[in-house]
Structures are given as C-alpha cells and as structure tokens.
Amino acid sequence: MKRSDLVRGAALASKIPMYWAFRRYGHPVLSPLAMSFVVTDKCNSLCKTCNIGRRYLDDPSVANGELALEEYAALAKSIGSLEWVTFSGGEPFMRQDFPDVVVAVAEATRPRVINVPTNATLVRATVGGITKILERLGPTRLVVNVSLDGVGQDHDEVRGFRGNFASVGKTVDELRRLSDPRLVIGANTVISRFNVERAEGIFDFVLGELRPDSYVVELAQIRPEYFNQGESIAPDPARARAAIDAFLARSRRAERRGVPRWVRAFRSEYYHDVKRELDEARGHRCFSAFATCSVMPHGEVWSNTQRADVLGDVRDFSLDFQALWHGAKAAHARERIRSERCHCETSNVAYSNALMSPAVLSRVFGRWVLDA
Ligand code: SF4
Questions:
Q1: pLDDT band (50, 70, 90) for residue 257
Q2: Ligand 1 centroid distance, CA of 371 (Å)
C-alpha cells in the first residue's frame, strides 16, 4: 500500500467515531464520504430486472430537464472531498456530456475511486468517453463495470438488447487496449430468477474467458430507482445462496488483479452478509444520509437508491449541497433511518455501513489477514 493511501486511510479512520456521533445524536453534521450520481434516466435496454429503459423508450420526455453539466459543476463545488463516487443511470453513456460531468465532479471532490456501471451497448461512446475522462482525471482510479447477466444469447434475452453479449466483449477488449494503470475493467452480474440456474456458467465465463480485473455479483433488487416495484425478479433463496457460494469459491482463486486486498476483504464480508440476510434478515444500522447519499437525475437527493428517503432537491437550494444536507428535510429523513434497521444489500451502501461498524471491520480485518 502506498504511503499516500495510508495517510488518507488514517484520516478516514479518524472520522469514523464522528460519524457514529452524527448518526446517534444528529451532530456534528458531517459531509458524506461517498456519493452516487444517477446522471440520466435514459436507457436503450429492456432488462427483465429493471424498467428504466422500458420507461424511457415508452416516453423519452421522462429525461427532459435532467441536471445540466453546469449544474453538476456548481453542485460539486459545494460538496467537499469524497472517498469514492459512483456515476450510473440509466445508461450513463447515453448522455453526450457524461465525460465532462465526471471530470467536473471529480475535479471538485477529488475521490480516490470512481465507479461507472454500463450496459456496454454503446461501444464507441463508452471507449471514447472513458478515454476522454482518463485524459483529464488525475490520479483517481476509474472502475468501469460492464454488466453481464448471461452467456451468449442468454445475456441478450435477460437484458432485452440483441447483440449486447458481443458488445460486452468488444467493450472489454477496447478498454483493455487503453492500457492505463488507473483503469480497472470490472464486470457485474445481477443474479435474478431469470439466470440463477445458469449462474455457475456465467461465473466460469467471466472469470475464465472475459477475465476482467474485478468482478462483482449482486442479487436482483426491487428499487424505486429501477421502477420495478411489485415485480417478481428475486431468485429462489436456496439457489441464490448456492450461487454466492459458487461465486466465492471461484473468485477467490481468480480475482487477484486490479482489486486491492482490502477491497477483496470488504467484498468477501459483503457476500457473507448477503447470505446471512437471506437466512435471517437481521438488517443493518444504515449510514445512508449520514455517510452516503444519491443525487438523482432531476436534482433530488435520496438517502440511497433503495430506501429513497428524499432529503431535498438541489435546485431548491440553488445547487448548494451543504444547505440541503444541513436542512430540515434531511434531518427528518435521518431520524427515520436512525429508528429503523435496513435490509437492502446495495453494495455501495453496504461498504459504507461496513466501514462504520466495529464488528464488521474486525471481521474484514480477519479476512484481510487470511487473504495474505
Ligand atoms: S439495468 Fe441498466 S441497462 Fe438495464 S434497463 Fe436498467 S438502467 Fe437500463
């Protein structure tokens, strides 16, 4: 680990007790450590687990009035520094100014890691956009996560986009040719009732043939962000558990490139937590709206994309994030979160929650030692 990472890690660790106080007593009000920016509701896919694309293709006007580049730039200046940032959609590369949005937010918030999930349908826009971001990014690590929910025709069927499996391979090949040490090529599989029976074949393909630097598996989730409330997408719990076990056994052997040891330790804890939740649904002390939040395409700020407590709209605060974050609506949302235990397994949120929990941190440390 580099000396600068150690210094930054120590600074982060020193803030953790203050976040405990923030969550427990409501003060001091601290800025978030990590944020996600859902930059568009535009999408060109008809995935079986998500209705963003269906909604947009039915009525493209749903994407009218999304935050403009200048608004992101102004907003980011009022946030302060962040540890990690996710930019998602919809399909983020459907925004022509997406690289400029990433750079504007990164320049103001100086994150250690940026994560960009993509459906990898728009090969030229994706590779060109990533090239443009890297040219102006500085030392930040950029993780591009391509979605892969099946092998061959199966992927195209689950994602509702003919030719998507081929474009995933092409995107990965072309990104690899960029040969930039800051670029981490990731893959992401959502296990749902539509592919759980073929999960092991997907893992074998990704780890054995696609060979990304990083590979993440999530269970299909109902989220307001996906407009999929009321849909039946979850895999059978026993099959989901077996799929996670199969994934852990394989990825332990394969995932050694691109993913720092401490990230692997957090991930391993995350998967064990997902399994525990399948077994007994104990829930978590959630730090959404304390240590993380999500900025939605039209300016609302949510606790996260699953709970979706609304903390306010940045346009009502003249793009001053701190005014919103210190406002009454945000405080009210925090009271609600404080009084509940949450059951979402959104990985971004799970990592922030893990960082804030001494019990989880000690388990992560144990996994870090064992992974040496
Ligand atoms: S999962 Fe991604 S690609 Fe699929 S419809 Fe939703 S936003 Fe679009």
A1: low
A2: 34
